[in-house]
Every structure is written in structure tokens, then in C-alpha cells.
Design brief:
The complex is a heterodimer of chains A (119) and B (114).
Chain A (H helix, E strand, L loop, with lengths): L3 E4 L2 E4 L4 E8 L5 E7 L6 E7 L2 E5 L6 E7 L2 E7 L7 E8 L14 E2 L3 E5 L1
Parallel strand pairs in A: 2-11
Antiparallel strand pairs in A: 1-3, 3-8, 4-5, 4-9, 5-6, 7-8, 9-10, 9-11
Chain B lengths: L2 E3 L4 E5 L4 E3 L2 E3 L6 E6 L5 E7 L5 E3 L5 E5 L4 E6 L8 E8 L7 E3 L3 E6 L1
Parallel strand pairs in B: 2-12
Antiparallel strand pairs in B: 1-4, 3-9, 5-6, 5-10, 7-8, 8-9, 10-11, 10-12
The chains are: A mainly beta (119), B mainly beta (114).
Chain lengths: 119, 114
């Protein structure tokens, strides 16, 4: 069992729908991430939250809207997606050691992902 | 820019034989390097990392990796492969200095043949 829980595991939606992906961790990690992974490809970073604040947005289209309501939860709101957005969406979390460069050497813990299909 | 390369898409090895999955890196500054494994329909699992210290890093499930600065490599190794090691392996490097993001290599599919 993974320590990062993602729901739902599968999601099929139309291009006009609005849906949300959810991620939860209780390891006390203060950095959380969203990745997109296409089949047989490496994960691509979308967003990074550090201490519940958005710290990195890798030029993701606005139809993806992240939200970090508290230190344990991370959401990804979806609206007006395109067929090419079909992918596995992975959430991850890691410790943050503030004030040190070594903080960025903490391993990330991944959930099992949400497999998203856009019709 | 930080990047890693995995030159082999596929590695096949017989059960019980040693295995090596290759990774080379290109970074500015000190390299923070990681190996992750992904089983079908699962997320990524952390295996090991190199930040500083001994060049030989030991990780989970009997895996180890050797950091070689002169060859800019960070190859993953295991002395005796198991069929259950068959999976997709990703090498990764930290992004900007002080940042938490990772850049992944293209992945190597390891198949251990019984």
C-alpha cells in the first residue's frame, strides 16, 4: 500500500465536464506535486506546492487548476479538457528541510495515480 | 539545464545474473540523483539517491548504484536479478538548485527471464 492516496483510480469524462482529482498524505510532508504521465513515457512535472503555496507551475494550461487546501490535501480541478489530456496523473509528496539545499534531496513518495480518459 | 539520459529502452537479464541499468547525467552544480521503479498500473517507488558521500549507494530491494563523476554516470545495479524485479526503471535528477522538482529519464524496461 502506498502512503499517498489518490482518488479516483479511474476517471472518464467528456470535454465539457468539470471534475477534480484528489490526493492525500499523512506523512507530514510539506511539499506536494502533480505529474502527468503518458503511456511508456516518464512523468512530467505539472505543479509543485511548498507549504501550501504554489511554487512551480510548468506552463500548464489553465484548464488544469491546482489547489492545496491544507498540508495533507492536494486537488487538481479539471475543466474543458482535450483528448490529448488523457494520461495517468500522479501525485507525490516529500519532506522539506527549510533553509538548506539538502531539502531538495528528499525522495518523493508517489501515489498510484488516477487514469484519466477524455472522450 | 538539468537532465538525465537512459540509453537503453529495454534490458533483458536471466534470473540470478547481475543486472545493470544505465544512466548518465548533465547538470550544473552538484548532482542530486535518484532511481525510481514503476510496476504496471502503479506509481513510482523510490529506490535510492545520491547527494554526497560514498560513490556506492545502497537502496531498497538489494539495489545499489555507483556515482561516477568523471563519466557523469549513475548506473543502477543488483548482484542477482529476480523475476519480480521486472519493471520500468527511471533515473531522475533534481531540477534547479534548492528546488524540489525532478526531471526523469525516458525509462528502461527491465525484463528478468526465468
Amino acid at each position: 500500500d502506498t502512503e499517498v492516496t489518490q482518488t479516483p483510480k479511474h476517471l472518464v469524462m467528456g470535454m465539457t465536464n468539470k471534475k477534480s482529482l484528489k490526493c492525500e498524505q499523512h506523512m507530514g510532508h510539506r511539499a506536494m506535486y502533480w505529474y502527468k504521465q503518458k503511456a511508456k513515457k516518464p512523468p512530467e512535472l505539472m505543479f509543485v506546492y511548498s507549504y501550501e503555496k504554489l511554487s512551480i507551475n510548468e506552463s500548464v494550461p489553465s484548464r488544469f487548476s491546482p489547489e492545496c487546501p491544507n498540508s495533507s490535501l492536494l486537488n487538481l480541478h479539471l475543466h474543458a479538457l482535450q483528448p490529448e489530456d488523457s494520461a495517468l496523473y500522479l501525485c507525490a509528496s516529500s519532506q522539506v528541510v527549510p533553509g538548506t539545499d539538502r531539502g531538495s534531496g528528499q525522495p518523493q513518495h508517489f501515489g498510484d495515480g488516477t487514469r484519466l480518459s477524455i472522450l | 539545464a538539468q537532465s538525465v539520459a537512459q540509453p537503453e529502452d529495454q534490458v533483458n537479464v536471466a534470473e540470478g545474473n547481475p543486472l545493470t541499468v544505465k544512466c548518465t547525467y548533465s547538470v550544473s552544480g552538484n548532482p542530486y540523483l535518484f532511481w525510481y521503479v514503476q510496476y504496471p498500473n502503479r506509481g513510482l517507488q523510490f529506490l535510492l539517491k545520491y547527494i554526497t558521500g560514498d560513490n556506492l549507494v545502497k537502496g531498497s530491494y538489494g539495489f545499489e548504484a555507483e556515482f561516477n563523476k568523471s563519466q557523469t554516470s549513475f548506473h543502477l545495479k543488483k548482484p542477482s536479478a529476480l523475476v519480480s524485479d521486472s519493471a520500468l526503471y527511471f533515473c531522475a535528477v533534481r531540477g534547479r538548485v534548492g528546488a524540489n522538482n525532478l526531471f526523469f529519464g525516458t525509462g528502461t524496461r527491465l525484463t528478468v527471464i526465468p
